[in-house]
Amino acid sequence: MTEDLAKTMPPVARVTLSRSGKSFAVGGDETILEAALRQEIWLPHACRGGTCGSCRAIVIAGAVNYDSGAPVRMRQTASPAEALLCCAKTLCDVTLDVAELAARPIGTLFRRPARVVEIAKPSPDVAIVTLKPPPTAAIRYRPGQYICVVGQDGRLHPFSIANAPRTDGTLELHIGRVLNGRFTSYVHEQLQPRDVVRFEGPFGEFGFSDAAARPAILLAGGTGIAPIKAMLESLTPTENRRALHLYWGSRRKAGFYTIENITAPGDTCVTPVLSEPQDTDGWPGRAGLVHRAVLEDFPDLSSFDVYACGSPGLIEAAFSDFTQAAGLPANRFFAESFNNAGTTPQFASAAG
Prior knowledge:
Blueprint: H1 3-8, E1 11-17, E2 23-27, H2 32-38, E3 56-61, H3 72-75, E4 82-84, E5 94-97, H4 106-109, E6 112-123, E7 126-132, E8 146-150, E9 156-160, E10 171-176, H5 182-189, E11 196-203, E12 216-221, H6 225-233, E13 244-250, E14 269-274, E15 286-287, H7 290-297, E16 305-310, H8 312-325, E17 333-337
Parallel strand pairs: 1-5, 12-13, 12-16, 13-14, 14-15, 16-17
Antiparallel strand pairs: 1-2, 3-4, 3-5, 6-7, 6-11, 7-10, 8-9, 8-11
């Protein structure tokens, strides 16, 4: 950590790792994980958004808090002594039980180049950006995972990969325009084919579980359709042995920007749900909150898996209602949450 950076991060607490005895200072406005990575203490992590659970730790002493309440992943555990370090902050000294990594996690901080081969604008608010890494920078990923694109300011911007692995190695990203969002504005207004960007990843644990026999609800809000589209593309009729029901919610009709491109097994039921239909839409389909449409059709979810991707509000409402009102076991709710403010700073120079 440089002297200038230290001045901008006044320590308010110290975190001690019980297994190694190492300790490090935490600034007043940074998470425990941010502070650790900034000081080159490598702790397990992946999504940095509170959904994957990779950074889970046991709080032995002290206490942590969260800016906007406990993440969904934390509400799925019965242990109040656990914390997700990518979201947790502290105002007092804390001792943690967590397995420290032996070295810098290569998959996390290795930056790869990719050329923009196509930018499509299927709706005013969504850009579908296709990236092609060179053969030496190609990645292997599981449908449902995401990458982080490096912005011009060095911050990381996570986007789910919207396609199953292709022979040409291309990666499809669905980038929604965010109000006052500098990076998404850059993508929509300035990014051009043949431009080169850099990215890190893949990250995350979202994707189909191995229990292929159970029926599944696929729940998407807005561009949350991206990882679910990739997951569906990866299935073949012989591999898929479960009933699948896709519910895609949008505020506007134009939000169903890629519904004709969703490839799914023939018996998959696809239900678009418009939350704010306009008189001019002439919308003949379902209306209202998308997760409520699921409950209307399936009041008992006790035998289902649920795969949900969208805004934190959608994820939290779906988890609460599905588990409390419809009997869904909490450990069968798999989620990836998008947060418009969820860009992550880069703390160390990347190799490559």
